[in-house]
């Protein structure tokens, strides 16, 4: 591994130069990414149900400047303009997320909202017409509010079956054109910031020694359920890829002392090993 000091020294001594696409391998994908709640707006249009972020941003004291995603950048009405901008900038791919509560307003999978299906069909078709490949995230933190209020959301293992129904519906509706799927975006952020620090929706912090672990575990199970249904029902005929997006704050030992190395390894276990390694012998042994 390159030491930070060596990397910074090399960077400082490097000659400035222009970088172009030809400097990258031909199969390198250049793209941009968004998430539904952050850009769509139209929170009460298209028969969309409320999400936990709608509730969180409208709760007094949660957002310092009182901003919310009610309108955002109005992507719901201006997606064609946005896709034109992506094409103009020359990107190969666009990663966006589907709002679970646009497909199932109550999250339960009892009735498909066809207005939501039409909206995402239109986005996918517009992207493909511009030669831009869609990368679709099923869950980017915006849980249907009904699931949270009626059953505790990610705290309840029952949510796994509802996520599987939702994922199955998306694969069936969009998978003929979408070849790259992401089940859950950064589950660590939901577990820690949603159920430990409380700075993300649903804003829980009262049981920070237990709830993040339940939430993380149920997200992993939900990912596995969605992955399984795709492999079983859709992989052969649709030929797509499916995976999980994780984030990690890297850690390195401060010295060669065994306690420093152990601390750095433990930090990485709780950052990324939680979701990507064998689940996770190290994390389990620490609890």
Give a written overview of the molecule.
- This protein folds into two domains: 30-247, Alpha-Beta Barrel (TIM Barrel), CATH 3.20.20; 250-287, no CATH class.
- The chain is α/β, with parallel strands linked by helices and 287 residues long.
- α4 packs parallel to α6 and α8 runs parallel beside α10.
- The longest helix has 23 residues, at 211-233.
- The chain contains 13 helices and five strands.
- Strands 1-2-3-4-5 form a five-stranded parallel sheet.
- It is globular, with a radius of gyration of 21 Å.
Write the layout of secondary structure elements.
Blueprint: H1 4-13, E1 31-33, H2 36-39, H3 52-57, H4 75-88, E2 93-97, H5 100-103, H6 114-129, E3 133-139, H7 145-151, H8 159-174, E4 180-185, H9 187-195, H10 211-233, H11 235-238, E5 241-245, H12 258-276, H13 281-285
Parallel strand pairs: 1-2, 2-3, 3-4, 4-5
Helix pairs in contact: 4-6, 8-10, 9-10
